């Protein structure tokens, strides 16, 4: 990615800005350690979630009231489509063999014909398409499956799983930068056989399931505390605004990029003007 033109464009955009909001600690550290971006022009600002209080937690559907597995994601997004194929061809057959009565419900917008062709009632692989009620899609299911093979940032599907009290099985890519050092809301593994086995155990073991649900609550309340990060964000914005000239003096690379962006347009227009003059002679 270091030689990728898109990387260069994004890095230039960060340097041109006074501040950039970064939602992932992994990417925040990548910018500082690999690209040597100064922390003064970066703000770590994850998803801002209200605290999960007792009233919300007590409203969750109980273990016995839930059944089946679920997975969710916009089918046009390549990491999500890859997940569906990986579940269909690798993970789900292993789970279905041990849990013949279980189903896997696949939710997502933009279900094209190639997506719907994967629907198979006999296999229990059910393409549900767009979820009219996301909360119900999660709270009706006992376990969320998200075997992401690639992707970046914070995974909204896994945040939602925690918000709705649904334990999940995911990969290291899926859980990347999402839970600090707290125990996961289920299990994390990149091995397909282990992934299936952990999903089966979580589906069957009520005590393990409740523990995983509690882990998710702790992650939301400790890692995505809206009040905490709103206050930090507001403080940084105020400090930067009050010292904007000094702040910009520290970012010479950004000033240089801004200069060349504006000057290149200026001299391109002069070149066009001279060219047109010659064409008129």
Number of strands: 8
- What would the CATH topology of the largest domain be? Rossmann fold
Structural class: alpha/beta
- Compute the average pLDDT: 95
Strand residues, percent: 5-15%
Percent of residues in helices comes to 40-55%
Terminal-residue CA separation? 48 Å
* CATH level 1 class label of the largest domain: Alpha Beta
Name the CATH homologous superfamily of the largest domain.
Glycogen Phosphorylase B
Order of helices and strands: HEHEHEHEHEHEHEHEHHHHH
The biggest sheet, with number of strands, parallel, antiparallel or mixed sense and barrel status, is: 6 strands, parallel
Domain count: the total is: 2
Kindly report the spatial arrangement of strands forming the biggest sheet: 5-4-3-6-7-8
Count of helical segments?
13
- Shape label: globular
Under the CATH scheme, the architecture of the largest domain is 3-Layer(aba) Sandwich
The Rg value, from CA coordinates, equals 24 Å
Describe the protein:
The protein is α/β, with parallel strands linked by helices and 281 residues long. The protein has 2 domains: 5-47 and 227-280; 54-223, Glycogen Phosphorylase B (Rossmann fold, 3-Layer(aba) Sandwich). Helix content is 54%, strand content 10%. It is built from 13 helices and 8 strands. It has helices spanning 5-16, 25-33, 54-58, 78-98, 113-116, 134-139, 156-163, 172-175, 192-204, 206-223, 226-242, 244-249, 252-280; strands at 20-22, 42-44, 69-72, 104-107, 125-129, 143-146, 168-170, 186-188. Strands 5-4-3-6-7-8 form a 6-stranded parallel β-sheet, with helices on both faces. Strand 3, helix 4 and strand 4 form a beta-alpha-beta unit. Helix 7 (156-163) packs across helix 10 (206-223). The protein is globular, with a radius of gyration of 24 Å. The N and C termini lie far apart (48 Å). The mean pLDDT is 95.
């Amino acid at each position: 990615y270091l030689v990728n033109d898109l990387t260069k464009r994004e890095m230039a955009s960060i340097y041109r800005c006074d501040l950039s909001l970064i939602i992932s600690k992994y990417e925040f550290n990548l910018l500082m350690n690999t690209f040597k971006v100064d922390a003064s022009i970066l703000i770590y600002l994850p998803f801002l979630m209200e605290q999960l209080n007792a009233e919300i937690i007590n409203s969750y559907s109980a273990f016995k009231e839930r059944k089946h597995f679920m997975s969710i994601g916009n089918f046009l997004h390549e990491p999500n489509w890859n997940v569906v194929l990986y579940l269909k061809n690798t993970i789900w057959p292993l789970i279905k063999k041990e849990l013949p009565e279980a189903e896997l419900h696949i939710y997502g917008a933009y279900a094209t014909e190639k997506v719907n062709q994967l629907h198979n009632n006999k296999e229990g692989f059910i393409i549900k398409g767009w979820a009219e009620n996301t909360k119900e899609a999660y709270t009706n299911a006992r376990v969320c499956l998200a075997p992401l093979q690639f992707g970046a940032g914070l995974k909204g599907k896994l945040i939602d799983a925690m918000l709705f009290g649904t334990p999940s099985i995911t990969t290291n890519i899926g859980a990347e930068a999402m839970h600090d050092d707290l125990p996961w809301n289920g299990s994390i593994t990149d091995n397909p056989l282990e992934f299936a086995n952990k999903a089966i155990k979580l589906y069957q073991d009520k005590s393990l399931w409740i523990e995983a649900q509690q882990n998710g609550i702790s992650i939301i309340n400790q890692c995505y505390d809206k009040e905490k990060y709103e206050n930090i964000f507001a403080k940084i914005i105020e400090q930067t605004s009050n010292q904007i000239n000094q702040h910009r003096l520290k970012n010479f690379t950004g000033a240089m990029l801004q200069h060349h962006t504006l000057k290149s347009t200026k001299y391109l227009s002069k070149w066009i003007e001279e060219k047109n003059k010659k064409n008129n002679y």
